[in-house]
């Protein structure tokens, strides 16, 4: 359980928070720190971001929020998510996301900021935030699906499959789940064989020409989550989720 770092030319950052990889607040911070450590290592040429279990990520641990008094857990989770998403985006080398099963909420923030995505054939992504009384990661979903579909997914909380994302060109390849980590590593090794100085400058250049500042955009979204909590709507939605209503 936790975040594990497997260093090398291709460094793997693997997280595991059973049963569904709904990360607690501390888990998001731990993930951000692991990604920063991986990127800071001079020998690292590519990072593969992966998860253990049947799903990649179910987002934040809502039950942790509801059993914690006040808003401390909520604030910690929001800051942790922002840090983890930024760590993917700002990693000085390419980050490849290896995605299986469900990728929801905060998982979309991680994957949407990755440089490349390899997905298992059972992978689906979605933002259930509206049903949870929160907003966020539409910034990252907009990097994966067309604009009107992104809006539909936010309003309805529908998911899309890895096969759909492959058709849009935002997922590089879709493979059987048993071959996911191998497929991600093959692409990583292809990139790692390039001149590392050139690849690092390429990552910096590509971030520099992005039309949207993903950090600022995401924090703007989070502001509405705070507003929903002040109004009481956020707490009501989270409690319905915890109670299974």
UniProtKB/TrEMBL annotation:
Name used for this protein in its record: Enoyl-CoA hydratase
InterPro entries, sorted: ClpP/crotonase-like_dom_sf (IPR029045), Enoyl-CoA_hydra/iso (IPR001753)
Family to which the UniProt record says this protein belongs: Belongs to the enoyl-CoA hydratase/isomerase family.
Family matches, as PANTHER family: (7AS)-7A-METHYL-1,5-DIOXO-2,3,5,6,7,7A-HEXAHYDRO-1H-INDENE-CARBOXYL-COA HYDROLASE, ENOYL-COA HYDRATASE-RELATED
Keywords in alphabetical order: Lipid metabolism, Lyase
SUPFAM superfamilies: ClpP/crotonase (SSF52096)
GO biological processes: fatty acid beta-oxidation
CDD domains per record: crotonase-like (cd06558)
Gene Ontology MF terms in the entry: lyase activity
Pfam families according to UniProt: ECH_1 (PF00378)
